[in-house]
Amino acid sequence: MGDHHRFPKRGRGHTRPFVPLRGFGGAHMQTILGTLGAPHPGDFPHEILKVPLFDGDQLVLRVNRPARDRPTGPLDKPLVLLLHGLAGSSESSYILRLTAKLNRQGFTVIRFNHRGCAPEGRALAKGIYHAGRIEDIDGTVQFLKGHFPHKKLLVAGFSLSANMLLRFLGERFEQVTHSNLLGALAVNPPIDLEACSQALCRKDNFYIDRFFTRLMLQTVQARCQIFPDEPTLVWPTTLNLRIFDELFTAPRAGFKSREDYYHLSSAKHSLHKIRLPTEILGALDDPIIPPSTFENITLSPETSLRIESHGGHLGYIGRHKTVHGDRRWMDEFVLNWIQSFDLPR
Hints:
Elements: H1 27-34, E1 47-52, E2 58-64, E3 79-83, H2 93-104, E4 109-112, H3 134-147, E5 153-158, H4 160-171, H5 173-177, E6 181-187, H6 193-200, H7 206-226, H8 241-252, H9 258-265, E7 278-283, E8 303-308, H10 329-339
Parallel strand pairs: 3-4, 3-5, 5-6, 6-7, 7-8
Antiparallel strand pairs: 1-2, 2-4
Helix pairs in contact: 3-4, 8-9
C-alpha cells in the first residue's frame, strides 16, 4: 500500500502520531476494539430538539450541556455537533463517550440523529436517510444558528456522516458562509463510495459487511411496522450492503441506480471547493476505506489531510494512555482539534 509519508501529517490539533496497543495493531482488531467498552459514566441527562425539514420530516437532536456554561455572549465556547455513522445514532458508543469528555471540558454538545435513527424520530421521518442527504445537515446547521444565535459551531462527522459533511461543505458554500460554523472534522470518511463498497465485499470484511447489512435490514423492518404502506421487498438469500443499496437505498432515495447513488454521493468530487477550516483523519489500514481513495484528490487550501499508518475504522486504540485516562487516541485527536478553536474566556 505504500508509505504513509505520502500523506503529510498536518492540521490544527497537533496530536502525537498514533501508535497501536501492543499486540492489537491489526486493522480488524482495532476496528472491533473501537466498538467495545463503556460509552460514558453515570447518568446522561439531555434535552431534545426537533428539526423541521423541507419535506415535512423531522430530525431529533439531543443536547448535552456541561455543568457550567454561559448561555450567551461573544466569548462562549462553541457548540459541538457530532454526526454518527451508518446504522448508528446519538447513542453510538463513540458519540456518548466524546460527549461526556466534551461536557467535562465545558462544551455543549449536540448529538445528531439522521432521519428515523432516534426512537422518538422513527415516526417523524417518512423519507430514509442515505449518503446523499446533505440537506439534512444543512437544515440542522441553520436550525442551530436560529436556536443558539450567540454560539459559534464546530461539527465533527464520523464514517458515512464524515463523507456527507465534506459534501455539504463543498457543495453548499452559500449556506456555510452564512452559518455560525467555525470548522469541521471528518473522521474516516468514505469519500469514494464505490471503492468502499467494493472493499466491504472482500472476504476479510465479511463480518463487518454482515454487521452493517443486518442493522440496515432491522431499520427497514422497523419502518414497515410504522408505515404500513412501505413497499415490501423480497430479499435474496445472499445479501450484503452493496446489494442492499441496489435494491433499497438507491431506488427508495430516487437515484437511477446504485452506481448513480455512489457517484453523486461521494465527497471526493467536492473537496476542492471547501472554504471552511476542515480536517480529515484517516488510517492506511482502514478495512472499509482503501488508502487509494485519498490519492490524486484535490484539497482546498482550507482543508488538511492526516492519514495514520494504523487505526482501522474508528478504532485508534493506542499503546499510551491519553490525558483522559484511557487509550482512545481518536477521542484525544477530536478533543484537541475542538480545543484548538476554543474562544478565549
